[in-house]
Structure formats: C-alpha cells, structure tokens
Amino acid sequence: MNAQSHRTAAFVRAEGSLLRRPTLAAAAWLAANAQTFQQRAFGLGTVLAASPLALRGTPLSDSSTANRLAWAGLRGVSEDRLHILGEAYYKAHLAGSLRSGGLRAIERARARGEAIVLVSDNLDVIIDHLAAEIGADAVLCNRMELRGDRATGRLADPTISGTLGGSRLRAFAAERGLDLSQCSAIGSRGEDQVLLAAVGKPCAVCPDPSLRRAARDLDWPILTD
C-alpha cells in the first residue's frame, strides 16, 4: 500500500463481510485434496479436531487455536500444490459469490479515498485471489511456514486470528503513516468488535447476533445484503 497516495484505510474482514464460507471449510477442502492418502487422512483429522474449538459461544471455543490446528493438516504439502489448491478452491467456492453488503461498504470506503486493507485468517493462496477480485491495496492474512518447498504445518509469523487489534494493528498503521482514528473497518462477527473499536469509522456488515447487539449499543452503522 502506498502511504503517499492513501492517508486513511478501510480494514475489511473477509470472513463474514465478504465470504459466506468459514475458514475451516477452506482448510478441510485443501486437506481433502492433498497429494497423498496419508496427507489427506492426517489433514482431515486435524480439521475434525479443530471443529469444536471453532464453534463460537461454546465453552471450548478458541478461534486462534482452531485456526492453527486446522491449517496444521497441510503439513508436507508442496508449495506448488498449495497454490494450485488455493486457486481451485477460490474459483469453485468463493469467486462471484461475495456478499453485496461488504462490496457496498468497500465502494463507500474507496469513494472516501481510503486504501482497502483485506484482513483474513485464511491462507494467502486463497485470499490473494479475493484481493485481486476486489482490488485490495494490501492484505493481512496467514501464510504457511515452508521448509524447502514443503509446508511444515505451522503458520508463519505473524499470524492472523479471529481478532485483529492492539499492537499488530497499531504497528501496521504506524508503518504506513495511518491515523486509526481516521480509518474505517468492516466486520461481521462478534470477534470483529476488537477491530471495529480500534478505528474511527466502524461498520457492521451482515453481523452475527453478538456484533449486531454491539453495533446497536454503540450506534455503529449496519449493512445487510
């Protein structure tokens, strides 16, 4: 993102605001299409283990741990295969089916002269295609750690979890000369309250019940499809 041309930014959470399918679905699809039977069996097992942690509102819910565990199932998959699967998944399940509410919010931000920063706990091999479709200026997402040309099963640092805020967000803004009080954010899940509360212009898009309540209490704009 060129800080010279953009003094403000809109941080757009991909999951929920634009994408209808959860991150866990992407992890399961990529694991199910790995190169060997052993990789497929291991990958699907880790996604199954991550599922209880990904269910929001349950005693076991922990989106950050669920995310790391789900992507661990790609251990041993080649870098080339990851890119092939990421593109195939995007074309088959995400392309052309983005939420209209999120797209409208992006267009409003772009009309205000804001850079579009796409935020996702998905993998770059998938999200880079979404960034190209919406014309994002920057992307904050997860990447697999590679050893040689193979995934280690760990996410490369720094990771993106269900929330984005605090020092990570401030560091990104400082690097690009952004004043968060003049920036906007678009989210749809209860976890996105952290991101939305960190900026001056929050917007809830197709919010879940938790974020809808918070948006009403805090008088944040709400957009639906």
Report on the structure:
- The strands form two sheets. Strands 3-2-1-6-7-8 form a six-stranded parallel beta sheet, with helices on both faces. A two-stranded antiparallel ribbon has the order 4-5.
- The chain is an alpha/beta fold.
- Helix 9 (about 195) links the parallel strand 6 and strand 7.
- It has a single domain, classed as HAD superfamily/HAD-like (Rossmann fold).
- About 45% of the residues lie in helices and about 20% in strands.
- It has helices at about 15, 25-30, 35-55, 65-70, 80-95, 100-110, 125-135, 165-175, 195, 210-220; strands at about 10-15, 115-125, 140, 145, 150-155, 185, 200-205, 220-225.
- The longest helix has 18 residues, at about 35-55.
- Helix 5 crosses helix 7.
Quick summary:
By secondary structure, the chain is an alpha/beta fold. It is 47% helix and 18% strand.
Q: Let me know the CATH homologous superfamily.
A: HAD superfamily/HAD-like
Helix percentage: 40-55%
The total beta strand count reads 8
Average pLDDT works out at 86
- Count of alpha and pi helical runs: 10
Which structural class do the helices and strands define?
alpha/beta
